[in-house]
Amino acid sequence: MRKSSACRTFLRRAAVAFLLVPALCDPLPAVMTDRVPPNESFRALPETTTARHYCWEDVNSPEILRVEGDREIVDASRPALRFTLEVFIDPIRLRRAVESYGVPESWLTYRYRTEDEKRQRERDMIARCAPHGVARGRKADSLEPDYCWVVQVSRDDVREAAARLKEVGRRAGYNDFPRFVGLLASFVQSLEYRLPPDVRRGRDGVPIQTFGLTMPIETLYNGHGDCDTKSALFASLLLGLAETRLILVRGENHLFAGVRMQPRPYERFIRLRGEDYVLVELTHPWRLGHIPNENWHAVRLKQMEVLPLFR
């Protein structure tokens, strides 16, 4: 007797976001003078080159006097350095990046008759999603962004922005790698914290599942993002200019980055395959190597997953 037809829908990954309130010196609120209105960027993309202007403070520039739990006591006589940056968004690169990522919602549902057929349908769907930056999730019957794919394909898209950031830092005397990493981090931290939508509309109006992630060049254009969106932008900017290795550290409701470099006093890091990765919180202004105690506690208890951004 034939089994009745069955239907399976893959679960969508919940947007990874956790609002963190850093206990630092009070930084200057970030300003993007031409921020895109909410949801406007998802209706239409620009047809011509678009300039974006940013103003922020580097929270890594003041000298730390001591650390008390989550609080950093800094030298008030040396205020944080302020920076401005103009970034030009290429409309062709922007559209290509946006349309390269995400899968039609119709792909998330398939039919099967037997368990063998079910497993084959799952394998086929995952293989179909892979070229669009979507991979099998941690939980059964789920999909999520392929962060390594997103970062690697975005390096060229944000390379010019990274070069402009590097020049801004050079003029301020930022000549060593840790200070450059700190400048990149403070820039990404300055972007408005906002959850991207889970779905965008394709050119033909078809719903495209994005799992709450925007591509790095799109994040630059929008001027906002959440924890994994900002982490992907940070990694793409850094890898666009420097030959280094990065990791992402992911928990149930949060994600942050790690950069391979020598830890300095007070900096928290993870050792992976004999190499040290200094941790970088990107949702709000935290100094390099300083993450909330609850996240550090979860790291030490091995409650967070390490995702290398290299194959």
List the helices and strands and how they pair.
Layout: E1 6-9, E2 11-12, E3 31-32, E4 50-58, E5 64-68, E6 71-74, E7 81-89, H1 91-100, E8 103-104, E9 109-112, H2 115-129, E10 134-136, E11 142-145, H3 147-154, H4 159-171, H5 177-190, E12 192-193, E13 199-201, E14 207-209, H6 216-222, E15 224-225, H7 227-239, E16 246-250, E17 255-260, E18 269-272, E19 275-280, H8 293-300, E20 305-308
Parallel strand pairs: 2-11, 12-15
Antiparallel strand pairs: 1-9, 3-4, 4-7, 5-6, 8-14, 10-11, 13-14, 16-17, 16-20, 17-19, 18-19
Helix pairs in contact: 3-7, 4-5, 5-7, 6-7
Could you describe the 3D structure shown?
This protein is an alpha+beta fold. The chain contains eight helices and 20 strands. The chain has helices at 91-100, 115-129, 147-154, 159-171, 177-190, 216-222, 227-239, 293-300, and strands at residues 6-9, 11-12, 31-32, 50-58, 64-68, 71-74, 81-89, 103-104, 109-112, 134-136, 142-145, 192-193, 199-201, 207-209, 224-225, 246-250, 255-260, 269-272, 275-280, 305-308. The protein has a five-stranded antiparallel sheet with strand order 18-19-17-16-20, with helices on one face. The protein has a three-stranded mixed sheet with strand order 2-11-10. A hairpin with a 4-residue loop joins strand 16 (246-250) and strand 17 (255-260). The protein starts with 5 loop residues before the first strand and ends with a strand.
